Amino acid sequence: MPAPGYLDAVVASTQLRPTPFVPEVVLHCADDAYSVWINTSTTPTGARDDSAPMPFWSFPWAGGQALARYVLDNPDLVIGRRVLDLAAGSGLVAIAAAMAGASDVTANDIDPYASAAQELNAQANGVRITTLTADILDAETDADVVLAGDVCYEREFADRMVAFLVRARRRGADVLLGDPGRAYLPRGSLDEVTSYDVPTSLTLEDHTTKRTTIWRPQTLDDARRRNG
pTM for this structure? Predict the structure, then answer.
C-alpha cells in the first residue's frame, strides 16, 4: 500500500471521472498537470523538488485508453491469466484487465504517486491489483500477458521498453502495446492488431481525437515469416 501522504496528494489534486473511451472505468483525473505537479513535487520540508516527474498518472492517455478498450472487448486475452501493466500511470489498463477477469494483475511504474493513483483507482472500480514501484525494464517477467500503453515518447525509454516487450514475447507471453503515433514507436518491428479513434484533450494532445493502434511486438521468427 502506498504511503498515506501519496494517497492524500492524489485525492487532493484530482476528481473521479469516467474515462472517455472506457466509461466503465472511473479514474482520479486532473484538469491541469502543472497544478498537480506543484502539489506532488513539494518535499516534506516544504521545498520544491524540480526533478520530480510530471504527473502522467493524472490523465487517461490515448494509448492506454485504446489498450484498456481492447482488453475489455477481448476478455479471453486475460481471463484467468497473470497480467503485467508496464509504465501503468493511472492503472487504467491494469484495472481493465482485472475487470475482464485476470487472475492476478500488477501495475508497474517508477512514480510513487502513480502507484497511489493506481491503488485509489482500483478501489474506486471495485477491483484488486498489485502495485510495483520500480524500474524493471532490465529484468525479466513471468507474466502471461504484458501490456504497455503510450510508452514511446522518449527514445531511450522506448528502446528499453520495446526490448523488454520483445523478450517477454519471445518467452511466450502475449504482449500488446497501445500507441497514438508517438515519435519513437518502432513500427518496423511491430505487427498491427487493430486501431481506434480515441477521444483526447487539447490539454494533452494537438487534436481532440487520436488514431491509436494496438501493436504486437515481433520476434525474429515473426519478422522472418512476415518477410517471406
Answer: 0.91
